[in-house]
Amino acid sequence: MLFKKSLQDELLRFIKKDRVRAHMPGHNGGAGLSSGFKRNAFKLDVTEFDETDNLQNPNGIILKSEERAAKAFGAKKSFFLVNGSTVGIEAAILTAVRNGDKLIVDRTCHKAVISGMILAGAEPIFIEPEYIERFGIYGAMSPITVMDALRNNPDAVGVVLTSPNYYGICSDIKRLAKNIHSSGKFLIVDEAHGAHFAFSDELPKPALESGADLVIHSAHKTLPALGQTALLHVGNTELVDVLRLRRNINLLQTSSPSYILLASIDEAVSKMSNEYGKQLNRVIETVTAIKSKIGVLDKVSCMTRGNLDNDYDITKLAVDFSKLGITGYGAAELLKKDYGIYPEMADERNVLLYITASTTKKDLELIDRAITDISKSEYRPQVIKKPRPMPHTRFEMPMKEAFFSDSVMISAESAIGKICAEIVNSCPPCCPIVLPGQIIDNSVVEYLKEYTDIEKIAVVSNSINSKTGQIEEEG
């Protein structure tokens, strides 16, 4: 036998214990899925017929489901996606720009934004959000930063922003959209982590309501939907060529979509529009109470609307354990090992727990107790690296040209002075650290060594080592 263990074996072993899923997908191990969906899931795995419609050119039940979603989210037009938000972001960029167009882009974007720009042949004009030293993370995008970029790049065709970011921090999309539109440009918002905003007045105002032209949602992140499910919404049909957008979605997305995933999107939207909207508000109330309790603890803290300058998704529970002398990674291991709580992610200082409408009262009570218990314990101090912003990006070649060039994989240290040929990132949060066409300098390599486990980088083959004049090909 070639393999003694299958993927299914390992997954079954993983889920055998009763774990708290403080991570995506947002259905919480099926807790947010209807009994009918779970009972009939495999029977729903069909293909295209007159009765089941066709995602590539819907005119039946899929079209009606997309129209229901558009109404729920306040969109002019909505598209179901089964290849995640990635395909929606890429299709949006391909629709909005032409080869050689300049695009103002949030530097802390998801790698899918870079992928879309490579496919479109767009030139990025990067802008950075504020860096919050207190938590060691990036925050919101300043409207002043965006306006400066628009003034300095009048030939840019539009702007792509991420809001909320992974931690739930939101930019002022309403103000940004007004400023961007007054300059005659379009606004695409990657709102992958904010699909639930439309279903509670306790949450930040959705990007569609705030004036964004194209918005992408990951249904599986915060709604009771299966992994890979997402939506792409049109907010302004005057600036968006909907027919071109449909063609680009079909260009990128599978022609054999899973009807299980399509049904999951439809059910998630329906549930959030009805009983789960009320459930979301109850969960928000409980999370708010947990954050209030954390606020009086001595050695742990968390992000709240009170200690952030911008609007914030209060369902995100980002807890800073650094005063205990342990890293976020160390705290995440404690949560997993001692309490069976699996967070979404950790960084040098924080642990991020994803709370959704599907999170149970029992799970929230255990999360509350675990944080309190850990805060009152003593631990052997760990080395906590001081977080810092990513290194500056300096291009020596257009991204598209570098990405499609011949390349070799070499050690990060050997790559100094060469041109990167790939998107280098750690996931989560999947924010590109090094980009195709970027010159790799000492600051890049130092950052990779200090904050990631990335040891090799693909570089453009004709990148010349400034000292030896040769490529040091490895592996």
In short, what is this structure?
The protein has 15 helices and 19 strands.
Helical residues, percent: 25-40%
Strand order within the widest sheet?
2-10-9-8-7-3-4
β content, as a range? 15-25%
Q: What separation lies between the terminal Cα atoms?
A: 29 Å
Unreliable spans are 465-475
Task: Give the count of helical stretches.
Answer: 15
pLDDT averaged residue by residue: 95
Question: Strand tally, please?
Answer: 19
Q: Please tell me what the overall shape is.
A: globular
CA radius of gyration: 23 Å
Derived from helix and strand composition plus strand pairing, the structural class reads: alpha/beta
What kind of sheet is the major sheet? 7 strands, mixed
Explain what the structure shows.
The chain is of the alpha/beta class. 34% of the residues lie in helices and 16% in strands. It has helices spanning 7-15, 35-40, 61-73, 84-96, 111-120, 143-152, 173-182, 219-222, 242-252, 259-273, 275-294, 328-339, 361-375, 399-403, 442-451; strands at 20-22, 77-81, 102-106, 123-127, 131-132, 137-138, 156-162, 186-190, 214-218, 230-234, 301-302, 316-320, 341-343, 345-346, 350-354, 407-411, 424-426, 431-434, 456-460. It has a seven-stranded mixed sheet with strand order 2-10-9-8-7-3-4, with helices on both faces. Strand 17 and strand 18 form a beta hairpin. The chain is globular, with a radius of gyration of 23 Å. Residues 465-475 have low confidence and may be disordered.
